[in-house]
Every structure is written in C-alpha cells, then in structure tokens.
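[scheduler] slot 2 assigned
[scheduler] job type: sequence-to-structure, two independent chains
[scheduler] chain ordering preserved from manifest
[runner] begin chain α
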Amino acid sequence: MQINRRKLFGLGAAGVAAAGTGALATRAMLDAAPPAAAASTSDPVSFYGEHQAGIVTPAQDRLHFVSFDVVTKKRDELVEMLQEWTAAAARMAQGKDAGTFGAVGGAPEAPPDDTGEALGLPPSGLTLTIGFGPSLFDDRFGLAAKKPAALADLPRFPGEALLPEISGGDLCVQACAHDPQVAVHAIRNLARIGFGKVSVRWSQLGFGRTSSTSRAQTTARNLMGFKDGTNNLKLEDAAMLKQQLWVAPGDGPAWMTGGSYMVTRKIRMNIETWDRAPLGEQQQIFGRDKGEGAPLGRAREFDPIDFNAKGQDGELAIAKDAHIRLAHPTSHGGAHLLRRGYNYVDGSDGLGRLDAGLFFIAYQRDPRKQFVPIQMELARKDLLNEYIKHVSSGLFACPPGLRDAGDYWGRTLFA
C-alpha cells in the first residue's frame, strides 16, 4: 500500500538549514533519524552523520547522477543555494516533499514547492551525495587557497576518448534509490531550486548496481555478464575504510577531513563485439569464471586468488594482462577503491549498436595514490581494452557528513 509522504511524516518546513526557524523544524527529523542503513528498500536512510550517505551505504538499485556548472558570480548566492539544497535534500531523504508547501499545498497562483512526481512514494532508501569539482576552485568565489592537492586534474590515460560536454563540472550530486522515480525526483528538484545559480552540465541514469558495498549484498553483474567488484571495499571493513576511503586529519585541507574523493568514468562497452567472443576468451580477459565468478584455477567466487597457479597447459591460469591481476591491490602497493557503479543503456548510436556500458563511480582517500596508478596500469595493459572505451570523466571532492540540521553542504569549505 502506498502512503502519502506528507501525511506519513507530518513535519513542518525545513527551511534554509542554517537559518534559525528552519533549523528547528528540521531538527525534529534528526531526532527521529533512522539507522544509517535502511531496514528495507522502501525505508529512509539517515541524512546526518560523520560521513555523507551514499558512499558506504549499501548500494541501491538505481542512480541519477548530475554535474552542474555554477552560473552565478556571487559567493553569497552560491552559499544560499547550498543551504536550500541541504534543507530540501534532508526532507526528500525522509520521503517528504522538497519544499514547505509541497506539490499541492501552496497558493494556486504560485509555482509549487515540489514537482510532485514522487507523491505517494516511500523514501526508497534515497541518498544524496554532493561533490565539488576542481573548476570550482578558480578565482570566482575565493576558494583557490582551499583547493585540495588531491583534487589535481586526472592525467590523460592511453586509449580514452573523453567528450568534454559530458565530463567535469563545478558541482555534482549523486542520487541513489531503489525506485528510479525517487532518484529522478530528487535531482529534478535540486535543479529547480538552483535555477539561475547553476545549470546542468551533464547527467547520467543508471540501473542495476555493479558493485556490492556491504557483505549483506550479493555480487552484481555488469553488462558483459561477469560479476563485478568481488573484492570491493565493504561497509563492514572499518579499518580498511579508515585507511583507504576517508580523508584523515593532516591529509589536508582541514575542510575535507572525514570526506572522500569521487572519480566517475563513463565506460562504453562494445557490446556486439563482446557478444561474439568465445566464452574461454571472455574468461581469460577477466581472469574469472563467468558463472560462479571464481578466479581461474579456483572453485568459488571468494576463494583467494593465486596469481601463480598454472593450468593444465603449464601456462598461468590468470594471464599477466588479465583484468583482475592488473586491478588487484597487490599490483598497486595495496591501493583499494570503494566502487559503486551502475549499468547504463542510452539507446542506440544510430548504427544499430547499443550505447551501453558501465557508469563507474569510485571513492578513495587520494586519487593520486589510488585511482590514477590503477587506471594507468589498466589503460596500458588490460586485455579488456579491446571491448571498452572511456568517454566521460569526473573528479569531485566530497566533504564530510552533516552534523545536524544547522549544518549545510559545503559549510566546512565556505566557512
């Protein structure tokens, strides 16, 4: 049975998160905040905490990712928008309308405070995660001195064919939910609130998570039919997350402590060519069995990988240029990533081929030490490169989580 959001929660306006009356109204939500992980796919996920939701949160089924360019030249307007975004995001994460009067409660002669397409839908585990791109730290808003060294532009990788119009951006918001309409509704309303201050640079819809971020989840498959991210960092790996995921005091700058760095890559797959490749070749490329997901030479998905194991022909069971060997932490000084990517299909290219692949998202403590060396090795040697092409790229600094309803996205940066 569907439940009307406004009747269910019955809370007052969140208002601007940093403003007094709005903060008091939103604090009621905080006091009744649900656990960090939703109990079911329809329940809410807590919006507040030490780290932003949507990073180690068990990966939801659907994604709407958007990159924005800031069009206002006024710092105060940008900060005000971020405060308004935070208030709206807190409401939507609880399954409420984006604004005070919602989709139908305002004056008939005024535009509604919410677009209305999520009326009657539960929260569906919605998480909203914000990030700041390198281009935000130019001379427009006085932020140049606060740009993290780890936010250095990614190098050019061999074989990539990046399209500038779907790469980069000043700000990004990652909306994940178990219902695609809930995720789209959240992004649509943030774009509406930001009208005149930001404009959408590019966006991406995703379905079918391709990574597990909790041991309670099974390993998902990508569009090539293989289990993806078997050895991904998990919510339960507290020590590894501290070492590999979260920016620590002293990493610099201070405003990023407790945050993480997000890398996005849109990776188009040559689906039709891949589908004609023999099964044995497909398995050699990945270094895994396609059915069980076991490393070649092993029986089960989570069996330890033996890179020295040999097949009956005396050759290495896992080739030197197999994907799992080149991506494995032992090939990069122990560097790990927390992946939470999604499949995508964007129709066809007009030549009878699917425009489909993987929208890769990875979080880490420092891209220079993690994503960059891993991807450089893959770009140079990976057998999989014959079947894929990187067409979009993004890098964003995701600040720490929000303390309470008096906090707002970017407070640590703009303070």
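[runner] end chain α
[runner] begin chain β
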Amino acid sequence: MRSVDKKITIFTICLMLFGLLAFPALSGAWSRMVPANFSELAQQAKSGVVNIQTVKTIKGGGRVFRHFFGSPFGNQPGIEDFFSPFRQMPRNRTESSLGSGFIIDKTGYIVTNNHVIKDADQIKVILHNDKEYDARIIGADSVTDLALIKIDAKDLKPLKFGSSKNAQVGSWVVAIGSPFGLEQTVTAGIVSAKGRIIGSGPYDDFIQTDASINPGNSGGPLLNMDGEVVGINTAIIKSGQGIGFAIPSDLATSVIDQLKDSKRVSRGWLGVSIQDVSKEMSEYYTLDPDEGVYVAKAYEDNPAYEAGIRQGDVIVSVEGVKISSSRDLTLTIANLRVGSKVDIGVIRQGKNKTFTVKLGERPDNSEDSQFGEELNSFDDLGFMFKSLNEDLAGQLGYPSSIKGLVVTQIDPGSQAAMSGVRTGDLLVEINHKKITRLSDYTRTMGKIEKGQTAHMLFRRGNSQIFVVRFEK
C-alpha cells in the first residue's frame, strides 16, 4: 500500500507542477484574446461621437394618419371616394427622429446615414459635452445610405478611419451611438461576417457584427481595438436580436471624399448588361469555378463597346484583379474614378484579350436611363429583372405609361421556373405595393421575412393580369 501511495503522491505532485506551468500560459493566451475592458477605447472615442436629432414636416397627416383614420368600412371599392370630399385632412405635422454620427474633421464635418437626415427641415447635433449645434447637409448618397453634414465649430476631436479590409472575422469591435436616444452608449462584440448582402441596393457589402445595435445607432461608428472606424452602423434585422450591419470604411471613405469635394457621388460605368457565369457556361468557356462575368449585351456608344468589348465576352479581370461575380464587377467599376482608363481582361472564343476602357459615369440616379436598372444575377426566387423603359416597352408591346420590372431570365429549377411566369412578363406589385424600380423590389422583398409569403402581381401583354404566390 505504501508503494501505491507513494506513486499516487508523485503523480499528484507532477500534476500540480504541470498546472503551475500550463495554466499561466493558457491564462495569458486568453487574456490576449479577450480585452480586460473597453473603457480606455470608449474614453478615447467618445469626444468624436455625436447624437443627431432631426425634425421633418409630414404633409397631410402622413402614412400613420391614413392607417388609423382611413375609411371606417375598410378598403371597399367606392367607399373611400365617397367619403374623401367630406374628410377634413389634418394640417401638416412635424415628426422627430434620432440617430448618431461621428466627427471626421476638426472644422465640423460629420458622417452619418442618409436615412437619418433625409428630408429633415432641422438637424441638431449634440456633442459628448452636451453642446448643441445646428447642422447643414453637405451631400448625401442614397445608394450607400451615407451623408455628410457640417456644424460651425472649431477644435473638435475627429475619429480616424481604419481599413475595413483588415477587420478580420472574429476580431473585436466596439459600437458607440445613441440607441433609443441614450447618448454615448458603448457596446462590444466581434465581426461576425463580411460581404453581407441584405437587399438594400446594388452596392451591398456589409460588415455583420454582434455588437448590440438598436434604433438610434444609425450613423454611429464601428471601431476596431485601435479606435479606428472600420464601419458605419446602418441596419439591423427586425427578427434577429444581436445582428447588426455596418457599411465598410473602405467603401465609405471614397463616397465621403466625393461628398466633401463636390457634394455628389459619381461612379464608374461600362455600359454593359452582365450576368453570373453558370456551371454549364463555365465548362463551355473552360473557366475556373467562380471566374468571370458574362457580357449579355454591350450597349453602343458606351465605354465598353467603344473599347471593343462585345456580347459573348467573359470579363475575368479589372486592372489585373480577378472578377468572380456580377456584384464583384459592379462594385469594382463603381469605385473607380469616372474618366479613368482601366484594363479589362476578357475571354473571347477561348482566347485571352485585354481592352482599355475609359470609364463613363454610372446613371444611378437617372429615372429615365436609356438602359433601365437591371438585376444582373438571379435572386433567391430565381428571377432576373430589368426596369421597364420606353424602348423596352415598345419592344414588348407594353403601353409607355406602365411602370414595372420586366423578367429577363429565369433560373431553371427555381421557384420562379415552376411558377408559370415567363420572360417578358412585367412585375407591377408585391403584396399590394407598387414596384417600379429595382430599389422598390429589393426594399419590399427585404421586409418579407423567411417563411412569409410574397404575392406578386404580373402583367402579360396588354390584357392578361395574374398573381403568383411565393414563399420566401
């Protein structure tokens, strides 16, 4: 027994020695992974974060009034028209909203979201020391939901931008803002994912984070552990607690610089209709997986066509950088300077070619673009769309007065393929909401949660109207 006890004692001593040696190392590694606290970072950054309060005028009572004080008989045909001459609509009323922002310049330039200050009659900025200033809008970009405003102040303490490219998934980040009007609220989390597409527009490229973001955080900074801005907090998922999205700093800085210099944003433009390369097309053109974008059409008198790019070409690179998807090409070209000359690598009939294209300006905000907006890759239902313009309406036999999205392609095997919808059909409504532009479509579909139903109203030709039910 004594020999056994001796062996146990020796084993116990060895185990204790191992613990003394190992656990400090493990403890040190863990302390390097998890910050002891965020107080120093919060203290350093708080002077650069602001609370934004806006006041806007809502005409005729607005949507809320119409919702609560509509016809007492519901939406019965003719009833609304009967009562409308006798209804006294209320006078214009004011509506207040809250948001956040951050200082980028000692002289008073402040970055926030476009939706925070859009249509505002009055914008008030409150600093961390409770000083208040009236702000004016320098410029805004609805496509990326960014805005630049300015206050008349001096010796402010701006925050510095970092590179969102260097913000790795899993790295610590801190959000500072005014959720629900609670100023200088600090929350911490990690970068959960990058490159998220949430259906807000053609330049979706969001950073996903689990740092708590709530209404009022919009426009506030997402900071790395060096106190640098790597994102602008912008959106949340209504049903997803703890999931927030931020505009990457690398995308934001180019937009903000243009707003500061010229009060507007211009983006590069090739003038092509494009689509992702399918597996079959990849085999046909002998391409690597996720390589290239197919040119469905190169429009005459536009940059790509004038440089020599034609329908059937597969764009594989821009300035030597690999292109793997339609979204990839759209973002790359949009971030290049209008008028700059870029080398576009293509594969034509199995041979590599390079064309030098002088970029034009993308007609993002043109309601009557000769091409119309296009959804150049299949959506979740299996559709590709193009907004109806005058030329397209004439080709398809639709009256020029009708607005909507034309189905240009349908993905085989998708919900769309099994629905009976054909190419050339015109989408005009989703769940009784009119759809005239791609932004209407992405916004409306983005509000429909997984498992819910989208009722789509289509028109075929001059007379046939039909409804198709899709489950998202």
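[runner] end chain β
[qc] chain β: The longest strand covers residues 185-196.
[scheduler] slot 2 released
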